[in-house]
Amino acid sequence: MVAKIGRGTNIYGALLYNHSKVLNNNGEILHLHHMKETADGNYTAMQLLTSFAPYLLANKNTEKTALHISLNPDPNDCISDEDYIKIAEEYMQKLGYGEQPYVVFKHTDIERTHIHIVSTTVDCKGIKIPDSFEKKKSMDICRELETKFNLSPAPEKQLFESSIPVNPINFATGNIKAQIASIVRHLPKYYQFQSLGSYNALLSLFNITSEHIKKEYLGEIKEGLVYFATNENGNKVSNPFKSSLFGKQAGLKELRAHFDKSRANSASAKSSITEVIQQAMQLNSNEMTFKDYLIQHGINTVIRRNEQDRIYGITFIDHNTRNVFNGSQLGKQFSANVFQELFSSHDLKLKQNKIVQPIIINQTNSTNNTTTSDHLHPFFDFMVNLSNIDGFGFLESLLTGTFAEDPEEQAFEYQMKKKRKKRPT
């Protein structure tokens, strides 16, 4: 069994994602622990959120209050709902969250049935629960549960992948060739991508780019691939490295064969990613919160713009199925033009709001101006940054870390934040 632990700023985003599976008959609420229950057994994401309210309101200075864990047994393991509940309870107890409120969801939308646990990282007094050496502790707990419940042990390769971080290129540390090699030698083993553009989108998460080189030599066209390290803005910061330095799997010939293989195996992965992207588009017309929402669901978004700042390309990297898709490959409704219009409409609305309430918006936007970068998925040891969901009332805004539409409510929350900052710790 493999556990993946994610943290974020918004519990509602995690609840909404899991509850959407329930509404679509692709999941169910398996267990509530220290949570408010309803008489008829039916729940909404907002109703579940109220159980976390006292903890979130008591929070003193912890930013990432949301805890989102998935426990993934071997597909061949037959586990009853009762055992799933016992596994979740024992896992949370040993990890240090046994007294916390949490809800256990079972997902059945893919062949591999698994469970998700949503909880909070702060206790009833608003103090952050210690998480030192959490990854090692989690792995040890999983090994104990495998023995106790007679589960198949996770393959050593899978344990290695979930525990060893692969970091973006750091030009300042030197040895760029070795850093690039540690990435490009392994990506084709784990990810499916159908073009050089998709490959470069995936490489961009590691501050790497490749370039197709074509030259004529003795009347014959020679082709090849070179790699560069890039900075956070995507600009090249190193000399070119020939692909032959990293093995044949990093070369153009092998990659083209990989493109063909990826196209043949992409059909099943498309349906799952399109569903999540559609949800993100319905909930978020802002580019930043759209990206955050997808990151919370294990999907990175890479957007390409021209000199006029217009979107001409968009690529989605699904770390769940390990597939990379250009928007156009998923359908016309996911083309670059569609997202250009979606994000532009939000920017226009924002400008109009600034004209009406310039002072209020400048005050409250201090929370929303945090720069969002395309971090790596938990597979590569990154921390999930849950999305911000707009459009609810003041209580929900306070709980989820977003702001209400009413300017008076925004001003009130701003004053509350000022008081909190002045309060001695």
UniProtKB/TrEMBL annotation:
Pfam family, one: Relaxase
Highest rank taxon of the organism: Bacteria
InterPro entries the UniProt entry points to: Endonuclease_MobA/VirD2 (IPR005094)
Residue ranges constituting the MobA/VirD2-like nuclease domain according to the UniProt record: 45-151
Protein name: Relaxase
